[in-house]
Amino acid sequence: MASLPAASNWTAGAGGAGADAGHLSEALTAGATVGAAEADWLQLLAQAGNLSASSSTMGLPTTSPAPSQPRANLTNQFVQPSWRIALWSLAYGVVVAVAVFGNLVVIWIILAHKRMRTVTNYFLVNLAFSDASMAAFNTLVNFIYALHSEWYFGANYCRFQNFFPITAVFASIYSMTAIAVDRYMAIIDPLKPRLSATATKIVIGSIWILAFLLAFPQCLYSKIKVMPGRTLCYVQWPEGPKQHFTYHIIVIILVYCFPLLIMGITYTIVGITLWGGEIPGDTCDKYHEQLKAKRKVVKMMIIVVVTFAICWLPYHIYFILTAIYQQLNRWKYIQQVYLASFWLAMSSTMYNPIIYCCLNKRFRAGFKRAFRWCPFIKVSSYDELELKTTRFHPTRQSSLYTVTRMESMTVVFDPTDSDSAQPGGKKRAKSRDASFHSCSGRNSKSASTTSSFISSPYTSVDEYS
């Protein structure tokens, strides 16, 4: 998540023989820039007669060069063949293009269509913004730094590069956590009012404030080191590699383990509730429709969370292993391992728009509208209706909500609509029992005791599809 030079081959010529100073592999992880791998690498260079003076300036033990060896000829060449560099460049370029453009389309779909402005979707906007920002401002810069082990972007961007990735990942994972908690409250305790628009904004603002505080040390201790032949961007911790390792373990717990634990618990309970059994008896179709809609949303968010967890797991494992077993930093293929794990972590930013499009009909309609200029994309009238505001129709029977017990006119939602409920649940029924009027009379008692998690006076079926 923060910028580090990856494994590159520094060669030192001494007496006509090329002495390999070792492969540099430094974890671009959750705010760690140099750490134990950097210390080991610098000591290796010092032993080769290159950094005997500069290593002490970085708080590392000074190692005197062998007097019989001439000064090393430092080179900054990348040892990978051109075809491999081209493949990696293509892979990272695809991630950045899909992540930035896809998440911007998601933001447009939600903010440009009033029907899409729900509690869940506001958190999805925050998630999409953080993913698009990290892909745009972090992924390519880190990739270039990993390829060349040379920092081209100046001191200010070095601080930003070390600071922002942790901030963005924190905002992403806790937006998912907020959605999980919101789904839990809506399904397990549906009679409680939903978050209002103001409360949703406060939660989102709090997430970013906490993210800034967690990442601030990365900005505070970021340094630029000008060396013979190259410039490095790294984080120089006051107490050295041990402090850096401790900080990164804390980051892993806060931006990976803890939120995934919370989401695992909440989605397990929600899953048992939604998939554990059907409404007994011959109940109305509206309840089955609402249950189906809730299942779709929960299924989509579970896939989003699992995708995030899978993508970031190898990256965190890479850092921990290379910090504990520092000899891995000199392994011949460590750079390929790093580039692969970093690519997988960054690719997490591009999957969400694809998941939304595949699993949610309203987002799918929004993507069709966004790409309607393509000759093979056709927007149907049904797709247009999907993004329009929910309409109310008068009817005498088969209603989802009855306005009053004495009135003959009831209110129903268009079957083609879903997800119009605004934050705060402004559409409310006046009677908790009224929602059962259209169900089978012989099963009304059993239905009323089991459907509290399916229907709520504060939420419509639109909120869940």
> Secondary-structure element sequence?
EEHHHHHHEEHHHHHEEH
Instruction: Indicate the radius of gyration in whole angstroms.
Output: 28 Å
| Number of helical regions | 12
The helix/strand class is: mainly alpha
Strand content: 5-15%
- Which CATH class of the largest domain applies here? Mainly Alpha
How many domains? The number is: 2
Q: What is the correct CATH architecture of the largest domain?
A: Up-down Bundle
CATH superfamily of the largest domain: Rhodopsin 7-helix transmembrane proteins
Widest sheet, order of strands: 1-2
The biggest sheet amounts to: 2 strands, antiparallel
Give the tally of β-strands.
Answer: 6
The parts where pLDDT drops under 50 for at least 5 residues are 2-78, 391-438, 440-465
CATH fold topology of the largest domain: Rhopdopsin 7-helix transmembrane proteins
Shape assignment? globular
Distance, first to last CA: 33 Å
> For the residues shown, what is the average pLDDT?
73
Helix content: 55-70%
Describe the 3D structure.
- The chain has a two-stranded antiparallel sheet. It has a two-stranded antiparallel sheet with strand order 3-4.
- The two termini are 33 Å apart.
- Helix 3 (82-112) runs antiparallel to helix 4 (119-148) and helix 4 runs antiparallel to helix 9 (334-359).
- Helix content is 56%, strand content 7%.
- The chain folds into 2 domains: 82-370, Rhopdopsin 7-helix transmembrane proteins (Up-down Bundle); 391-464, no CATH class.
- It has 465 residues and is mainly alpha-helical.
- A hairpin with a 2-residue loop joins strand 1 (9-14) and strand 2 (17-23).
- The chain contains 12 helices and 6 strands.
- The protein has helices at 35-47, 54-57, 82-112, 119-148, 154-188, 197-220, 241-275, 285-324, 334-359, 361-370, 381-386, 444-450; strands at residues 9-14, 17-23, 222-227, 230-235, 392-395, 410-413.
- InterPro entries: GPCR_Rhodpsn (IPR000276), GPCR_Rhodpsn_7TM (IPR017452), Neurokn_rcpt (IPR001681), NK3_rcpt (IPR001013).
- Residues 440-465 have a biased composition (Low complexity).
- Belongs to the G-protein coupled receptor 1 family.
- Disulfide bonds join 158-233.
